[in-house]
Design a protein that fits this description.
Elements: H1 3-6, E1 7-14, H2 17-21, E2 28-34, E3 39-46, H3 53-77, H4 83-104, H5 113-119, E4 122-129, E5 133-139, E6 142-146, E7 149-153, E8 176-182, E9 188-192, H6 203-210, H7 212-216, H8 219-230, E10 238-245
Antiparallel strand pairs: 1-10, 2-3, 3-4, 4-5, 5-8, 6-7, 6-9, 9-10
Helix pairs in contact: 3-4
């Protein structure tokens, strides 16, 4: 059985209350790729102080999902390559693309900190399912839910998480692998941006990940986030992405 037959994936996002009041776009992004050999879901969280961080967050999510599918498909076929090394390669390839984008934003074609700070700062979390191993890796903070266990990642000192594009400014950043498990033992893994932290210890977060309706109809996941947002659940943008085994859907 291929992974596209064994697993389903869904993602959804809603703009937080603070951004709606300021008449700003949400600064999160998400992407899903499901192939025979790799399932990848990504959530990205743009820096709130950036005037247009949604540019990097949304383009970055799409690039990351594509790069993950390509790199981990190769890693699965080439078993001597550690999956952590594949994750690091994904980030290096992401930085190559971000550099091209950064240069395109500058009239002189230079990589300038001001342009990066304005539009390209984002952190990310990714779930990757390969035939042998499922893992979660990323740069920055957020939430991980794996078969019922919830982990809230520390954003770091002064609530200032690292961002992938810092690598364009000389920082040496390696992605952190937060979770690994044999795929045969995995039924559900979800990642979310820190906007969902208010739900981290409530039934609502588990429901978002586990309710089979959202896996079968991904559009319902966003609709549920909108309902929760209208009830005042999120001051910040909130994005979640879920991978579930089909046989676990009820």
């Amino acid at each position: 059985m291929t992974l596209s037959e064994a697993f389903v994936a869904a993602a959804g996002s809603v703009t937080g209350r603070d951004h709606r009041r300021a008449e700003r776009d949400g600064q999160d992004g998400h992407a899903v790729v499901v192939s025979e050999d790799v399932v990848a879901v990504v959530v990205t969280d743009g820096c709130s102080s950036g005037r247009a961080s949604e540019i990097g967050a949304r383009i970055g999510a799409a690039w990351l999902a594509t790069l993950i599918e390509q790199r981990f498909r190769a890693a699965s076929a080439d078993t001597p390559q550690p999956l952590a090394a594949a994750a690091a390669e994904v980030v290096r390839e992401l930085l190559v693309r971000l550099e091209v984008l950064a240069r395109s934003l500058d009239a002189e074609g230079a990589v300038k900190a001001a342009r990066i700070d304005e539009a390209l700062l984002f952190g990310f979390l990714a779930v990757v399912v390969t035939p042998g191993t499922t893992l979660v890796f990323g740069i920055g903070d957020g939430i991980i839910l794996a078969d019922g266990a919830i982990t809230v990642l520390d954003p770091g000192p002064e609530n200032a998480p690292p961002y992938a594009a810092y690598g364009l400014l000389g920082a040496h950043l390696e992605p952190r692998v937060h979770f690994t498990r044999p795929t045969a033992e995995v039924d559900l893994v979800a990642v979310a941006t820190d906007g969902l932290i208010p739900l981290a210890n409530t039934h609502a977060l588990a429901e978002l990940a586990a309710d089979p309706r959202y896996a079968k109809n991904p559009s319902l996941l966003r609709k549920r986030l909108v309902v929760l947002s209208d009830r005042g659940a999120f001051s910040d943008d909130a994005t979640v992405a879920v991978v579930r085994r089909r046989s676990a859907l009820r």
